[in-house]
Amino acid sequence: MRHVYLITFFVCVLLVSILGFRGTAFTKPPIDVFPEWAFPSMEVQPKPRPQSQSKFFADGRSDRVPPAHTVARGMLRIDAHRYAGKAGGDAFARGFPEGITVDLKLLERGRDRFAIYCSVCHGGVGDGNGITKRYGMGATPSFHDDRLRSLPEGEIFHVISNGRNTMLPYADKLSPDDRWAVVAYVRALQRAQQGTPADVADATAKQSLGIQ
Length: 212
What we know:
By secondary structure, the protein is mainly α. 38% of the residues lie in helices and 2% in strands. It is built from eight helices and two strands. The protein has a two-stranded antiparallel sheet. The chain is elongated.
């Protein structure tokens, strides 16, 4: 009987040493004790790898062109205001679309994206004095010109998305919501240049400025 216990113990040790404990991180693919055709598992999935061959299709390609008129999940963008900056037809919309709440979180996101993608040309305060001006790009406009202050928010969104003149489009770098965040931050920069002490709403701040 003692030999049976010893044999059982060594078999268990052997199995653990080969298969490992459940949840162990392996550096090599695990050993499949049972054939995949008999006991399918999630570890081996019949999915194509990028640029791999596929026996399912006649041409052998795994990369397929999407069927015509299909839209990827989450990419059905029927809200013209939110995704094109339009109010109907070719007119640009004023204000921000539904679903975009202009708050501190949005402005902070806009400031972050603006600093990465916009400030190199437009400058940190939107005056057109970015670092590129030192290298010969002198046509960058200031956001504080009356012409740009009067633009609808939708047109600013449109320019960010599609570019204009020497400015390239940024739709491939900024999501629609991030573009609206940048629009909100541009408006904040413009407001900061045109504001007066009378615009201060906080009672404590007003008292420190001596505003009644």
